[in-house]
Structure formats: C-alpha cells, structure tokens
Amino acid sequence: MPLRLGRLSRIRTRRTLWRAAKWYLGTVTTLQIGAVVTVLAVDRVRKRRKPPSGMFPHTPPETVPVADSHVTTFTYGADLYEDMLARIDAAEHTIYFETFIWKADTVGHRFKDALLAAARRGVEVFVVFDGWGNGVVPPSFKRFPSMPNLHVLHFPFFRPGLLTFNVRKTGRDHRKVLVVDGQSGYVGGYNIGDLYATQWRDTHIRVDGPSAWELENAFVDFWNDNRKRHHPEIPDKGARSWDARIRVAQNAPTRLIFPVRGIYLDAIDRAQHHIYITQGYFIPDREILHLLKAAARRGVDVRVLIPEVSNHVVADWAARSYYSELLEAGVTIWLYQDAMVHAKTMTVDGRWTTVGTTNIDRLSMTGNFEINLEMFDRDLAQLMEKIFLADLSNCRQLTLEEWERRGLLERVGERLLKPLGPLL
Ligand SMILES: O=P(O)(O)OC[C@H](O)CO
C-alpha cells in the first residue's frame, strides 16, 4: 500500500511540474508575441508620423592602392550602381553576379537588362540570387530567357536542413558580389533596388587588379558547390594571386566553416588604439561581446555605429539588451539619424579593415553564406576611418546616463525580446 501511494504522489508531482512548465512556456511565448506586435505597431505609427528623411552625408568614391591592386570605396548606392552597370556594359568575357535581394524596380530592371545584354553579345554570364531574400519579388522578374551563355542559379527558398537539423543544408545566400572579366570585383552591403540607391547609407568596395581573384574564386567556389545538374561547372584554376594584405573570408554552412567570425574576433583581440564598427544589425554573440568589452577595458576606443531605428525594429530591440554591458565597459554607441545605415564594416588601429556582407549577428556569423574582404593597409583603413567620421557627424551618442534612465516597460520589452536574437 505505501508503495502505491508513493508512486501516485510521484505521478502527481510529475503532472504538476509538467503543467507548470507548460504554463510558463505558454505565458512567456504569449508575452513575447505581445512584445513583438507592440514593437512593430509602435514602429509603424512612428514611421508614419515622422518618416525618415533619407538624407545623410556621403563621401564620393575614392581609390587607394592596396597590395598590387586598387580598392575603391562606395558609400552611396546611386554611385555604386552606375559604376557596376558601366562595368557590366563593358564586360568582354565573364560576369559573376550574386545578390541576396534583387528588387523588381527600376534599378533591378536596369541590372537585369544589362546582364541579358551582356549575355546576348557573347559574355559568359553567371547569376545567383537568394530565394528567401526575393520571396516577395514577382516570379516573372525571376524568369530569364534561355540562352547558351546565361546561367542562373535561384538559390532555394526552403533549406531542408531546417527540418533535419543538418547545418550543412541550412543558410541563406546573403552575399553580394560582382566580378567582371576577373579584373574588377565588388563586395559589400548593397543589395539591388531603388530604395538602397538613395535612401540607405551602405558601404561597398571595388577591387581592381590581381586581388579581384579573391572575389572571383569565392564566386566560383559557391557556384560549383551549389549549382544544379544542368548548370556548367566553372573550372577552378587555383590561386592566381596570393597576397596576405587582401584576403577573402567566406562563411559556408555547406562546409561548416565560418571564418568571417574568426577575422572579427582576431582583429578585435589585437586592437591597441581604436575599433570603429558600422553595422545595420548588431546582436553580438558571447565571444564578440566579451572581446569588445575587454578591448574597451584595456583602453581601446571602441565605437559602435548603428541605426537609431533600423528597418527591422525587432532586431533593434534584441540588440538593446547588450547596450548596458557595452556602455558600462566603456564601448561608445552612436545612433545614426534619419536613415537606415546598412554597412557591415570594421577598422582597427588605422591599419586593418573589413568590408563585406556579414552582419554582427548569429544568422550572419554562423548561419548564412557570407563574404568579407579583410585588408591590411594603412591608406585604406584611414580612408574608411574618414568615412566613419563622416557618418559619426550624422549620429547622436547614446550615453550610459541616458540608457540608465529608460523606463520599466522598455526593460521588460528588452528581456522578452532578447531570446529572439539568435533567430534574427
Ligand atoms: O540581410 P541584409 O543585411 O542584406 O539586409 C536586408 C534588409 O534587411 C532587407 O530588409
């Protein structure tokens, strides 16, 4: 009899615990959904009442020699797109074009027309665009005529690894690359679309010369890894150029390698004087957070420049939960005003630069296909710092005092939305 009673009581305890767990999970999930809906609604009202002016300072394209090549910076979409289109129009042999988002608007059509025209005049044209990033783009825009030297890879919308927990079969193609004739290579934060031409502040670079191979080879790797059976393989010729001063880093879930995170961690760890970071979405993981705080504590001037209000307000809220730790450690936070800043760049000590497609968040650092260039060159780093300081003139500083004064509701919202960070 006592044995039976003991068993009954264990069953009851288990049921009570199970009910409590269900109640807790249900309540937290409901509160999180409520927080997301509230944040989105408030953002919508605010943007309707006071839409961002889209006005921001930007610097004209500037070129500096790096290693045996030349690197040109672009900080305004309209300048970049004209430059890219001119190179596509002048292409003679090959065009490798890869983008995460490709809008079916005026800019988007200009790119599509230019690529088709190049293929018609005999250039070998390879195009990759992401299915998820272009999920809302009309299917007609994503259809291309059949031509012998036009090869189009629509990177799948759905990745089966999400269901089978196979990381190798997950990830979005978040890269933005253009390589023309193996001579000029572009990489950076710009997607393709009207909005980005004039309304968003972003950074792209063009590499002319032997180091364009870094981007060419990166495209070839991606194409050959992900092409469909009907696509031709691009011959992989090995390194045509190899210079430690300018090197590509590619995150590739299919290969389970994420070196972009490594170059960020390494550069932050080495910093002695200053680190300037510009990011559209900034949700640092534990290691990046730790190293940024450690750098600030050893006296490095660590500045993080992010939009005051980005186009993904839930991501902004997930990021806010890290502000206290950063500010307390001495990292300064600069909020970009009146426009979206979408660049993904960092410079260290006026000598090291990275520009690429990788956001400082989990999805980019350990989830998506990404590509960054890291460059060891004082002239380039100083040019990038000049751009950073121009951006800073359009920011307001978020001080620890201001941050400490925020209300209880905001603090609760941050706590609720923090767990969503890894998904954003
Ligand atoms: O994913 P990204 O960094 O290219 O940004 C894309 C924009 O958020 C589109 O909404």
Automatic annotation (TrEMBL):
Keywords for this protein: Membrane, Transmembrane, Transmembrane helix
Membrane-crossing segments per the record: 21-42
CDD domains tied to this protein: PLDc_CLS_1, PLDc_CLS_2
One protein family per Pfam: PLDc_2
Entries under InterPro entries matching the protein: PLD-like_dom, PLipase_D/transphosphatidylase
Keyword Kinase tagged: no
PLD phosphodiesterase domain sequence ranges: 169-196, 337-364
Protein name: Phosphatidylserine/phosphatidylglycerophosphate/ cardiolipin synthase family protein
